Amino acid sequence: MKILTAYASRHGSTREIAEAIAEELRSAGHDVTLQAAKETQSLAGYDAAVVGSAVYVGRWLGDAGDMVSQFKEQLKGLPVWLFSSGPLGEDPYPPGEPEGLPELVTELGARDHRVFVGRLAKSELGLGERLVVRAVKAPEGDFRDWEAIRNWARSIAASLAAT
Q1: In the chain, domain spans
Q2: Which of 76, 98, 102, 106 is the most buried (most CB within 10 A)?
Q3: Predicted TM-score (pTM) of this structure
Q4: How far is CA 102 from CA 39, 113, 152, 157, in A?
């Protein structure tokens, strides 16, 4: 199957998650296009889509939201999986779903939405972001669970193999 894996990432952590998902899908024999959401020009020819975004201030980045809005009708006709990256820490904060994601899952008929814990490297942040990180006392570090990410991608591949 031909699968689009699109992502919106501000500092690269979500892109790296999308890369791991694409790698697992490829290893299962799928033809995968990995690209930034803002670069998506068409969904023609794709049999499925995985779309993810970093979460800032409880919301997906604009590039991911814009891509989903632009291609909403086509996405409704495909098997779609969504993922979010953003909570931080051993006891991930903030908990729960990003704003609007439960409704988006329903609207698209997405098969699943997963929230993956992210990474924070303060050295990569701009002044405004560092001030917010300090104010909310966000922990620095890489909290991504690569096995959980790969297992989720394998479950997508298994679901597609069953159809």
Answers
A1: 2-162
A2: 98
A3: 0.91
A4: 25, 8, 18, 23
Structural tokens at position 37: 């959401």
**Distance between CA 68 and CA 100 in Å, rounded?**
12
Interior CA angle at 145 toward 141 and 148, to 5°? Answer: 165
Residue 63 vs residues 2, 57, 132, 151, 157: alpha-carbon distances, Å: 22, 15, 21, 26, 26
Give the separation between CA 63 and CA 147, rounded to whole angstroms.
27
| Type of residue found at 17 | I
> Distance between CA atoms of 25 and 27, rounded to whole angstroms?
5
Average pLDDT of span 97-118? 93
Q: How large is the C-alpha radius of gyration of the chain?
A: 15
pLDDT interval class at 162 (50, 70, 90): confident
Give the three-state DSSP class for 121: coil
Please count the other Cβ atoms lying within 10 Å of the Cβ belonging to residue 63. Answer: 20
CB-CB contact of 32 with 160 (8 Å): no
Q: Which CATH architecture describes the domain 2-162?
A: 3-Layer(aba) Sandwich (3.40)
